[in-house]
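It would be a great kindness if you could assist me with a short task in structural biology. The matter concerns a single protein, recorded as an amino acid sequence and a row of backbone structure tokens. Could you please explain, in whatever detail you think fit, how the structure tokens follow from the sequence? Thank you for your consideration; the sequence and its tokens are set out here:
___
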Amino acid sequence: MEKLITSHWSDFQCVPEDYIFPPESRPGNIKIPFNTSIPVIDLSEAQNGDRTNTIHKIIKASEEFGFFQVINHGVSVNRIKETMNVFNEVFKMPDVYKKKLITNDPSKPCKMFTSSINYDHEKVHLWKDTLRHKCYPLEQSQHLWPENPTNYRECVGDFSTEVKKLGSRIMNLIGEGLGLENGYFDNDLTGSILLSVNHYPPCPEPSLTLGIIKHSDPNLITILLQDDVSGLQVFKHEEWIAVEAIPHAFVINVGYQLQIISNGKLKSVEHRAVTNSSHGRTSAAFCLAPSGDCNVGPAQAITDENNPPIFKNFKYKEFISHYINKNGDTDVVLKSFETPR
């Protein structure tokens, strides 16, 4: 329990040495202005006769930023508020309940840990605690989720079902925009969702540490629910830009698998999370991904003699194993899956 930052952050007047990043990796000035050019896409337009324009916006955002936000997405405000309240309650639970969840064993299907799974081996720790478990297929995992708060399983289960529907809608729009056949992603390519709920307590010196280090996501897309505290930053044009926490919106970002399937047309970009000194922040990342044995590679409809495949075919579990072994290093992860030139 002494490791959980949520249990003892208030004891610190300054950041402990093992949370201080080297100067070249520190966030420095965290008060970066919000970038208004990151697209905010109204999904209701696609249902009201403007589907083509919505698809165009999504594809353009995925090419230029690898990020966009969606509003009027069909998930009710009440359900979002209820679920976020439950997520926050998890980290406020008495130690006796959290102790049952804490582990650094990556094989555990439901776990709470501080910083990362590699806590015992990492040089610098992250200023966050995480609750992580699968949430799709629901029937395979829901019984393994936390028993407390008592409404966690029901609430998060209902919310996960809504997120899966939203993910399917977005992937169908992307598939159509890429020129793929109808229902291209309605199979094992979207056969799994992993949920990571991250809590970042207030930090006495946020310029010295990070909540999440610079990385790109290994999955297909990530559907991120934020509270009203901003902390997400995206690396664009060799600088960090801040993503505004729009109430009740979801942030969507392209993962490596979508970059590969699109043969490099859509981009998985680097991003990170910073902390602040006055407010805690909670976010929930629903990582939509292929099933472990699913074969992934550039879509045949996209590749031809003029646009040959730049990536090999592989099983998703092979990619994840490589991603973990390389610590998610953006510069090297994709190279092993590129076709010879």
Observations:
- The radius of gyration is 20 Å.
- The chain is about 25% helix and 20% strand.
- The longest helix spans residues 152-177.
- The chain has a mean pLDDT of 94.
